[in-house]
Amino acid sequence: MTMIPSMTSSFPMAPKPFFLLSFFLLFLLLPISSLPSTLNLWPQPTSISWSTPAAIPLSPYFSIQPHFSSHIYLHRATIRYTRLILSERHRPIIPPVINLSNSSLSSLHLSISDLSAPLQPGVDESYSLYISTSGATLTAATPWGAMRGLETFSQLVWGHQPVVPIGLRIFDKPLFTHRGLLLDTSRNFYSVRSIFRTIRAMSYNKMNVFHWHITDSQSFPIVLPSEPELAAKGSYGSGMSYSTRDVKRIIQYGLSHGVRVVPEIDMPGHTASWAEAYPEIVTCANRFWAPTGKPALAAEPGAGELNPLHAKTYQVVQNVLHDLSTLFLDQYLHAGADEVNTACWETDPAVTHFISAGGTHDQILEKFINLTHPYITDTLNRTVVYWEDVLLGPYVKVRPATLPTESTILQTWNNRAKNTKRIVQAGYQVIVSSSDFYYLDCGHGGWVGNDSRYDVQEAEPSDELFNDPGGNGGSWCAPYKSWQRVYNYDILYNLTEEEAKRVLGGEVALWSEQADETVLDAKLWPRTSAAAEVLWSGNRDSDGIKRYAEATDRLNEWRYRMVRRGIQAEPIQPLWCVLNPGMCNLEQ
Amino acid sequence: MAPKPFFLLSFFLLFLLLPISSLPSRLNLWPQPTSISWSTPAAIPLSPYFSIQPHFSSHIYLHRAITRYTRLILSERHRPIIPPVVNLSNSSLSSLHLSISDLSAPLQPGVDESYSLYISTSGSTLTAATPWGAMRGLETFSQLVWGHQPVVPIGLRIFDKPLFTHRGLLLDTSRNFYSVRSIFRTIRAMSYNKMNVFHWHITDSQSFPIVLPSEPELAAKGSYGSGMSYSTRDVKRIIQYGLSHGVRVVPEIDMPGHTASWAEAYPEIVTCANRFWAPTGKPALAAEPGAGELNPLHAKTYQVVQNVLHDLSTLFLDQYLHAGADEVNTACWETDPAVTHFISAGGTHDQILEKFINLTHPYITDTLNRTVVYWEDVLLGPYVKVRPATLPTESTILQTWNNRAKNTKRIVQAGYQVIVSSSDFYYLDCGHGGWVGNDSRYDVQEAESSDELFNDPGGNGGSWCAPYKSWQRVYNYDILYNLTEEEAKRVLGGEVALWSEQADETVLDAKLWPRTSAAAEVLWSGNRDSDGIKRYAEATDRLNEWRYRMVRRGIQAEPIQPLWCVLNPGMCNLEQ
After folding, report:
1. What is the C-alpha end-to-end distance of chain B, expressed in Å?
2. Which of A409, A419, B32, B158 would you label with B456, given CA atoms 20 to 30 Å apart?
3. Catalytic site includes residue A339
4. ipTM value of the model?
């Protein structure tokens, strides 16, 4: 059935304007270039074929069948996508010109081979989708693959009266099993609502790991049943902490969107906030971070580290880890271990005594790891994720024997491909978060106060660039990582095939010194989309050529669609560029 | 009597569990007033029937401001991050009395914005020379109020007036579109920061979003679409909204460069329109994608331009009319046979520009009776420029954006009044990477060599004016740097600028605030304390509080530090 009688027999005649075109022209008065019809999907599927540019209207009674009422998360996803599909009324900036079928599509049939597959590392997320005049089928191995396919189906729908392409076949599966986003909720607080929105946006982009960097030196926002004082005294306040109920809701929300929630409690460094409840287990807490003429006590303001030589440290840490494993379901538990600062430790007499007796800082860290790692892996039955620093230093590190490769994953953030290679060569699985490509907070100037370096009126000499071009403006990891920079990172660069197998995937990261929920969406999107596509289907076309030029147009459309879906994603170009594809390229 | 805890303290403690440092009580005002005295830390509750008297019903803009501030004062219930500890008076304040000497003063360049404010147990008075100064004082009063049950400090005297008469914000609504609603919000935020000029860069090469009665085709064909243009009614509402907030609206139609969008309606008057901006092996046709310039050698150009300027002067009330004139590109002009003929006959590009200025400048000044504002390029080049004699100093203001203080000095030495928008300090779009597509420069996996830095530290990441201008950079700019006292008199003030290639209303607030607040304070009362020392350290704490207050007022301003820094003043400094 179709609403427009004059269009009743348009398939398979010569292409004529899509019946909604006049509606779009009202919206966009600039001339529409007559481009070959393209489907704007993000991330681009692994394999797609669309024989002729034809589409079919969705029946107003369109449904996804069956409902899988027995699987609460999949059931929620089918309800959500049914609603989205029927209500989104997506208006492409450049609408495809297609033939319209005179029948209509009344359902999408879902077929899942293993409904019981849990959402866990490495779960099969493949799916295939087939849409024809006679019906649409989505086949997936698991509910989580089905959710990816439902997202793809939803992106295929457009129009005030919704239509989907027909004659379409998609086979799709991710290149990497770990496609994540790190959010730091310690430097500044994020409401549960904004975390929900972020997880929702991740599912739009087929991402599957929300790496929740919950605590740090600045605040301890999670309420833990065995250690309630940590949040009671260490959070920013009662409206700014996550209750057990909040955490459960976030995990449930993640499951309904096929997104794992991996918690991180950073330790033994980055723990000044613990001192509000337990000053005795934290060294150098509440000291000024950068004492004049002495080594800094931390990488940034907010100094304080757990004291591995204090017995009570382990009592608190074990309670924290235990609660964490009770609250969070995921196989992974991230325990931080980055940027341990020796000067901070050395403010403690026990530490200086240990060192003067011939001990080393590495031994102190090793003691901490030895007393916590086995607890996490053996008692709590989790795989530990640490930042690479624990193995690679440069200042404090442990011997590889301390970190069993079978139960330890390392997350790299320094030295690009070099550290990735060092980690996999040492036998570890790795998650890639290169700060040179994947740190979304970079290039935003400095945030430390009372900083005279900005007070320069004249041009700076070339060897002292700070504010002028060539200077970092106060940001250690400047310049800003634009979507094109994110998109072009090859996380397997310079690895052998064997080494590449140990790369689980990647995570972009938003450290929140200069961010909170007022600016969250703009910081994350669409740059996180860039990583999402690369981790799902790569950054090359079928000829092996980097596809950043083609991706520009597609990402423009996707950004506008995300905005309509309630994600305040940033524009990547003037709208003129979207309306005039290719005209805003560097090279024609 | 001895200070006792403020009665709302327990309420705040519920909100913030971290220990409150016992700091000397201070008032967080932004921008900091010129002169403030507060004898003892004491405050008085506002009566629930608090009102501002008289209502000035005869002055519609002031009346609206009074209504707005009365509502804000009674409903805001501001919670300072670090609440002041004060003695609380047991009486209450029932009104603020307003006294204005010249109610008829129009909102125009140089209008007196001074005010004085006195609050005591026996009453409070706000005295101002003009309604616009009164609005500044009302804003100050609103910032003095805090608490679930609102209180204001007593024993307080403020005398305040701006250092510069021109305190502006430029918004580019051509590269991407902004709704009227988001422009309203921006003007509102400007008034919170005592800014007084909304420089509306309405058109550019990418779109022509303003519907002009005599030239409706320009927007009909050159805007991004019918939902993305400004009707006459929209423009009037924006101007009215500005007046109600003491903010002038200065329109800019950029020309003769930056005009590709005009070609949708009038292809014959635009050179190089719709050509690819950066042809291989040839000079670029524009500074960025979207090439096209008005052709000064085509007669019809002036017919359209005069209609545009005429409509602009009819729609907009302000004394200033900004006519652009930046970044004229000679390669784009030379795609036109008339231009190449003119050049080959011995003419110069400067002469072509001069012809354009000669045929438009007098029309704006003499016929339309406006002061013209141009970008500095028209005088300083570097590529195309006119002779100073073409630009009468009494009717021309130049806006500088290059070479920091150097160009400011060149302009004032040439006798012109100047508005400062140094891209090194005041361009809010800088440092956000590049936006041009199909750009292989990002595809670098290895560390870059030190002489080819692009993505690595030291590279600009694709942004010509990187690095990002943080609030501290904005705050520390001395726009009078290296000028004599006489030269300084010709500096009207400054404008921060948001060019919108990578911005639209989804990200507007975060791009503007609180960095624009930094400029707003410097242009109002400077960046130095009473000892003449730069006050950026003290300003950090005050700006933190102000940012949170703006957020509560509906402006999605960016945080400048972790909340921990606000709760632990001084601990996040570079030097103790």
Report:
1. 35
2. A409
3. yes
4. 0.94
